[in-house]
Amino acid sequence: MDMTLVGLRVLREVAERGTFTAAAEALGYTQSAVSRQMAGLEQAAGVRLFDRHPGGVRLTGPGRALLRHAVVALDAVAAADEELHGTRSDGGAVRLGFFPPAGPVLVAAALAALRRDRPRLRVTTREATTPALVRAVRAGTLDLAVVTSRPPHRSPDTGDPPLRAEPLLETRLAVAVPTDGPFGARDQVGAAELAREPWIAGPGGAAEPLLGVWPGLPGRPVVRHTARDWLTRLHLVAAGAGVTTATPALLPVLPAGVRLVDVAGVAEEIRRISLVRMPGALAAPAQAVTAALRREADRTIG
Asked: Domain with 41 in it: what CATH number?
């Protein structure tokens, strides 16, 4: 098979981003250039690598098999480049992803501990939604990812081989309200009351639902403000702009003027925070990051 490194890089990017358009934006290519690369790769492989659907593309079985080999080849080329140019870290390197609420508490604290205990270990991080993080782990651009899930906590994707998911902690969902607002002095608020409130949410999509709105509220929630960053949403709550969902794990970083209250009259919404990775033995640097995240999770529970 006559395959180029450029073609393999584009394959990995498309697998991670889920669409040719998003892959083109990430790579600085035109969409037609990405399409040509993928057509050439499919011709070289002699098989169809992607199934097209309205929301983007998904790897076929042969596409997933080729991606596994592409990740190994591209990582080997990157390691050779680092060694030749003397940029390789003596303590190893780990690429860590996390969903936004995990950043201010869990990930930041783990990185602080690693800087103290493993100063030569180089950790690079990326914030994204859980579906995007899972695609990145599968595509080999992340080694580890801290993700969230709702019951019944199925496998984070349907790829083969199945990803390894290690639960770190479970927490319940609550609503962040301004302390000087109508719910600021209460411990609970009813779902019907919340349905009338303006919400502060993150932008959603077909595969990545709206974040920040209590699930299953009666009627259609009014989203008055959108922000990707969770701390921005919490500061908007403090400013009296609306309410948003949050978990008690965020208590250490709640801004002044914000309080968490439970939602009465509905079932509890439990969220599990897990660390996902590809199956197989973990290299020592990834083991160190995993251990640091476990310690911080245990501290958060305690």
From this structure: 1.10.10.10
